[in-house]
Design goal:
Helix content is 65%, strand content 0%. Helix 1 packs parallel to helix 3. It is built from five helices and no strands. With 125 residues, the protein is an all-alpha fold. The longest helix has 27 residues. Belongs to the complex I LYR family. SDHAF3 subfamily. One of its GO terms (cellular component) is mitochondrial matrix. It holds the Pfam family Complex1_LYR_2.
Length: 125
């Protein structure tokens, strides 16, 4: 892979992890782990798949940036993240990708997530 591609991937990866800091702690933990796994999984794909991968993650980063800013400005309203996937996009997914998406949705929407996020407490005097 050309050096420009590698630096583009690293910059996007860092940008996404920085954007995740604006998420609630449980979603941040889930998102960080998912991003790390996906980027690791796609290290050795062909150039066409790598381009599609980067384009989709760039869209994700853009949407997350916009939603994070909107949620910051409307702090009194219920916080909402994500977008619905159009059916035509879902039709392009492989079975493995549909399975991953379903697992991610289940993890993100279950009441007791597997991630344990300790809340910071003020010391008692």
């Amino acid at each position: 892979m050309p050096a420009g591609h590698v630096s583009r991937v690293r910059a996007l990866y860092r940008r996404i992890l920085l954007l995740h800091r604006g998420l609630p702690p449980d979603l941040k933990a889930l998102g960080d782990q998912y991003v790390k796994d996906e980027f690791r999984r796609h290290k050795t794909v062909g150039s066409d798949e790598a381009q599609r991968f980067l384009q989709e993650w760039e869209v994700y980063a853009s949407v997350l940036w916009q939603q994070t800013n909107e949620n910051r400005q409307n702090s009194t309203e219920r916080v909402c993240f994500g977008v619905s996937l159009p059916e035509e996009k879902l039709n392009d997914f492989r079975d493995e990708q549909i399975g991953q998406l379903q697992e991610l949705m289940q993890e993100a929407t279950k009441p007791n997530r597997q991630f344990s996020i300790p809340e910071s407490r003020k010391p008692e005097f």
